[in-house]
Design brief:
There is one protein chain. This protein has 157 residues and is an alpha/beta fold. The strands form three sheets. Strands 5-7-6-8-9 form a five-stranded mixed β-sheet.
Length: 157
Amino acid sequence: LQLNTCIKLPELGWHVAEGLALTDLTAEAAAKKMWMEDFPAAQVLARDQKKQLFVDFTGSDWCPPCIALHRNVLSARTFLDFAKDRFVLVSVDFPRNKIQPDNLAQVNRILSRTYKVNGFPTVLILDANGTEVHRTVGYDGTSAADYIKGLKTKLQP
């Protein structure tokens, strides 16, 4: 449970001034375990497991659509269950307010240039060799279930 903003009003006591957000910490922990940051290692794993790469180019701590996509879809149990047998999940992050190792930041910049990422969030589905199969730019607030339906439609042979 996260209280965004509480204020104490004279003679009225404490009140919630803004929204109330519930966070499923179990789902967050499960999501973190499934996401990789090492792109070459993810490619090897995808090749070994005969899966595709699901690559999320994100600004995890500053981009509102990226944060919403992660919260509403990419960390949802329904998405993680759908993804586990199909994809190796890769996060390519461009944070502004958290420290990232220099080598990771450099690799992420190279990946961004290589795949011509011009906006956030950008989600790429790649084969294990790194060939683009599908691209989505932005996030429109779709639920996890609808996001999965869209992926299934777009990825059918």
